[in-house]
Design goal:
Layout: H1 2-28, H2 35-77, H3 80-100, H4 106-126, E1 129-131, E2 144-150, E3 161-166, E4 169-171, E5 174-177, E6 179-184
Parallel strand pairs: 2-6
Antiparallel strand pairs: 1-4, 3-6, 4-5
Helix pairs in contact: 3-4
Length: about 180
């Protein structure tokens, strides 16, 4: 008897579930749209997509303008850090210039000037500037600019830099000025 009751309850649950499922699927099923309604719906979607596209284009244009403005600002004020670090050197040079006439000892003036120059190069080295040591190295067109070829040199010097007329410099391992050199032939 318990089995019959369980079967009846199971049967009722199945019928109720089936009816509920049919109601849900009827509610979820899209209603048929007339061609005019379909056209109106598609036009509405097109308008929304156009507005989204215009918004994205305007957003990108604003981004591009902002980046260009920031880049221009960096270029304009990029040297501020270096100039600020050079100001103490300028102060030292001005003091040396003011006191140059007061001192009769040329050696003291020369020593003071050498101290200022050393301070200047240490400051530039902190910013990543390095002077190239080129004399005695093989000629390299990526680092050197040959302005003279010197004939009659020993065989062990051929193709090597024998004199540097203008020093070359690198900034953070990038050549910013090529060394002007004389090369042995």
């Amino acid at each position: 008897m318990n089995e019959e009751v369980n079967e009846n309850l199971a049967g009722e649950n199945t019928e109720e579930q089936t009816a509920t499922e049919e109601q849900q699927s009827a509610a979820e099923a899209p209603k048929e749209l007339t061609p005019e309604e379909q056209i109106a719906e598609l036009e509405k979607q097109i308008t929304e997509l156009k507005n989204q596209q215009l918004y994205k284009v305007a957003e990108f244009d604003n981004f591009r303008k902002r980046v260009m403005q920031e880049k221009a600002e960096l270029i304009k004020n990029g040297g501020t850090k270096v100039i600020t670090t050079l100001l103490p050197i300028i102060d030292d040079l001005e003091r040396a210039q003011q006191n140059m006439d007061k001192y009769e000892d040329v050696a003291a003036v020369k020593e003071g000037l050498n101290l200022i120059i050393d301070k200047f190069f240490k400051l530039l080295a902190q910013e990543g500037l390095k002077k190239m040591d080129v004399v005695g190295t093989p000629f390299d067109s990526d680092l050197h600019e040959a302005i003279a070829m010197v004939p009659g040199q020993p065989d062990d010097l051929k193709g090597k830099v024998i004199d540097c007329m203008t020093a070359g410099y690198t900034l953070n391992d990038k050549v910013i000025r090529y060394a002007k050199v004389a090369v042995a032939e």
